[in-house]
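User: Predict the complex with nicotinamide-adenine-dinucleotide.
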Amino acid sequence: MRFTLDGTQPRVVFGAGTFASLAAEIDRLGARRILIVGTPGRSELLHRAAGLLGDRVAGTFNEAVVHVPEAVAAHAIIAATTAAADCILSIGGGSPIGVSKSIAMATLLPIVAVPTTYSGSEMTPVWGITRDGVKHTGRESRVQPRVVIYDPELTLALPVSVSAVSGINAIAHCVEALYAPDAIPLTSWMAEEGIRALGESLPAIAETPADIAARTRAMYGAWLAGSALAAVQMGLHHKLAHVLGGSFDLPHAETHAVLLPYTAEYNESAARDAMSIVARALGGASAPAALYNLGRRIGTPGSLGDIGMKEADLDRAADLAVEKPYANPAPVTRDGVLSVLRRAFAGQALD
Ligand code: NAD
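Assistant: Here is the predicted structure with nicotinamide-adenine-dinucleotide placed in the model:
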C-alpha cells in the first residue's frame, strides 16, 4: 500500500442545535468583524445569525447566486473590503459558499460555513467561477472553510425537491471518489458510508420532510461526501455537470441528479470494484440501475430535456467536455460523451 493524503479538514461541529454555538465558534477564531454571505431566500436565517453575533457583524452580502458569476464575486469582494471584514460567515447552500470562496481567494479571509443543503462544498478547497459563460474550477487550500457548523434543524424546511437533488449531488461526489486515481482507503470508506447514509435518508425525507433523524443522517452523508470530494479528483461526471451548468445554464444539482446513472453506466465496465461498492451501499443489483431507481423514488427530474437542455446543444456540450484531458476510468471520447448526453437527454430507463 502506498498513498498521499494532502490537506487538512475544517473543524466540524455537527448535530441538532449546534447553530447556537455560532458566536463561540467565531470567537474561537479570534474574529471581530464578520461579513455574512447568503441569498435573499435565507433572509430569516441570516437575521438569526446576526442576532447571535451582535456587534461582531460588520456587513451582509445576500446576493449570492449559483456558479459564482464573475460580477457577483467582484461585488462580494467589495462588500468584504468596505466592511473591513476579518471573517466570512457563509449561510445557505453551495451558492453562498461558492461566493464566500471567491472572497477568500482575493482576501485570504477565513470562512465559517453553515450549510443548509447537502451539496458538500463547505468541506472542500474547490472553487468555481463563471467567466464569459464558461465555468472555471480549481483547488486552493486558502478557500477551504476553517469551521463548518452542521445543524440538521436548519434543513427541516428544505423543500423535498431541493433535498433530493442536492443529496444526489453529494452521492455523485462519493461515486467519483470511489474510482478516483488518488482514492485511498479512508476516502473510499467515506464515499461508501456517504452513499449508504444518503441512500437511506433521502427516501425517508421524501416521505416525512421534518424527520429530524433522517435529516441528521442526510447531513452526515453530505459531510462524508464533501470530505471525500475535498481529498480526491473528480472525473467525467463532474466535468459534464460543470459544462451543462456553466455554459447552458442548467440548474446545478438537478443536472447532477439526471446525469449520474448514465455517467455510472459509462464507467461501469472500467470501474467494476467501485461500481459494486455503489450497488452494495444502495442495496441494488447494479450501480446505474440503483442510482436510477433512487432518483425515481425521491422524485428527481428524469431527463436533461426536463431541466431545460436543448437537443441541438448536445454536440457543443460534448465538444466542451473533451476540450481538456482529465482522469476517468473509461476513456473520455467525444462519441462516448455524446452517447451519455443523448441517454440522459432521453431519460433512458435503466434496470
Ligand atoms: P443553492 O445554494 O443554489 O441552493 C439551492 C436552493 O435551495 C436555493 O433556491 C436556496 O435558496 C434553497 N435553500 C437552501 N437552503 C435552504 C433551506 N434550508 N430551506 C429552504 N430552501 C433552501 O444550491 P446547492 O445545490 O447547495 O449548491 C450549488 C452550487 O454549489 C453550485 O454553484 C455548485 O457548483 C456548487 N458546489 C460546489 C462544490 C465545491 O466543492 N466547490 C460542491 C458542490 C456544489
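The chain has 13 helices and eight strands.
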